[in-house]
Amino acid sequence: MTSGIEVIRPGMATTVQDWPGRIGYWQVGVPPSGPMDDVSFRLANIAVGNPEGAPGLEATMGGPALRFDTDTWVCVAGAPAPVTVDGRRVPQWEPVFVEAGQVLDVGMVDGPGLRIYLAVGGGLAADEYLGSAATFTLGRFGGHEGRVLCAGDKLETAGTPVGRRRRILFDEQPAIGKHWFVAVTVGPHSAPEFFTRDDIDTLLGHDYEVHFNSDRTGVRLIGPKPEWARPDGGEAGLHPSNIHDNAYSVGSLDFTGDTPILLGPDGPSLGGFVCPVTVTAADRWKLGQLAPGATVRFVPVRTEAAPPAATVGRERRAFLPAVFSAGGDQDNGILARTTSSDETTNVTYRRIGDDNVLVEYGEMRLDLALRARAHALHAALEEHRPDGLIDLTPGVRSLQVKVDSGRLPLSTLVPMLIEIEASLPAAQELVVPSRTVRLPLSWDDPATREAIERYMHGVRADAPWCPWNIEFIRRMNGLASTDDVHRIVYDAEYLVLGLGDVYLGAPVATPLDPRHRLVTTKYNPARTWTPENAVGIGGAYLCIYGMEGPGGYQFVGRTTQIWNHRHPLAAQGFEPQHPWLLRFFDRIQWYPVSAEELSDLRADMAAGRGQVEITDGVFSLAEHEEFLAANADDIAATRATMEAARAEERERWAAAGEFVRKESA
Question: What keywords are annotated for this sequence in UniProt (predicted)?
Fold first, then answer.
């Protein structure tokens, strides 16, 4: 029997979530979402007899008021807050009976912590999107209409609880405080390659403060500025935090410039910033309760000593406020090093928490042969699909392998990866399907101009890339005029190396002809708003933003949708089985349209009647390398001019104090 629930007051940022969320789509930029504090969420479900992952509610700082039209059992867990039924105070962490017509009211958090969880007997009824009912508000899908709850919304329960109800014991409840100790493993990008030893010592020996500008995408921290082991990121950007794009993990400490951000369950899957440490899977629940002003101390632990995340029992150790550790792995996050089967390429296996390995090929440079090696490993793992494998996410020169560490621990995974690597073909044998996808581009679109203006008014007015990103791109690459930027972008053919760079099938792509590879650095700090489908360049890469959100690429324009928000309804140009437009190794070509024409094209795409010109083809690495050899002298001369311009820009930055600039808190 289902029960109707009327939302009298929605609370703050209240959404429907389930656990473990939306799994298996990391490689196309779909985050798992789900509860930020999975321990409290799962325990609330257990209390009312539900499966641990049944859909329930998550609220931030203040909970909802709900009227039930039939008798229902509920449990409120998470951060402490006053809970009443028709004005009568009732406890958290145990099942509470709500009679038909009564109002359950969950007030504001009145102690440490940030998020409140509400489970109802039978779970909430919610349509699944890509296999989960979890709400991803930035993507506008999952949960209740893909958004936070509003007053007047009507919810329903899914049925009858299947288990017995029980109170959650005190020593099962997570320890929620104001001063947090968080277990981390070192890696993937640590000292001495990216950070100095002193940087890592400071990181692990200093309390960081939680910034108020934090949310489900990430928890921003205030703390010491790194000294950095490199002067810059080379082709990836002028800041030493910049790297060629690779996959992230939930719980990674992502340095976007000098700002550390703990990536949350709505965070990006791919990006071009270094992450020196990663929160262990069992401790990631703590991200959901990190309130502004709280302090965080990172505690290095050995990977094999990390407790399991699959359970919410005592072995999870969530009830302990401290992290007990005899020290970390003492390996700088490097699990192993080897060479490719043809002995031409170094292979590095980097730890990302206790449930991911980043397989990284070659030196820190853009080389399509390295992407070919990552593709070969990707294909081999897809073919074998070992038990415990969850996600495979390629980057520019890497492949992230995510596993269920309870079934496939890293100590078993790494030898398996090394064995597979030894059997892979030479990179030059790569021949893959490669479609040509022609898309419209509104040059210097008004929406991107608006984003720059917002950035200047709300974040930073004196940035070198302001007030016009295209002029900055011209200067960075030693071009005579912005017309040259225009010509190069429209002449280029961009090869898609990764998807999900900024969510929802967003490509990270680079021109096949190195003479077209305009190189820039990214915003530091990042923008707080980017229009959907803005097109930008960061490092040597082009990206199409799959949705509104933060961002750091330098704008050149805007295009049509690359994600079918109508899914599972059909839309022309999109394949019916999934909502993303692009594939790995697609080639993007641009054709010019006005802002007005783009507006009409976007309306057609949103209505499902848009047209995308797609032509099948193949990409051969051997043929590409023949092209490079035939044009080597001209390519070298063009790249030398661009590199000289970047060196001049770097000198201007140094003279202006850009590299020692401290971001205000």
Answer: ATP-binding, Hydrolase, Lyase, Nucleotide-binding
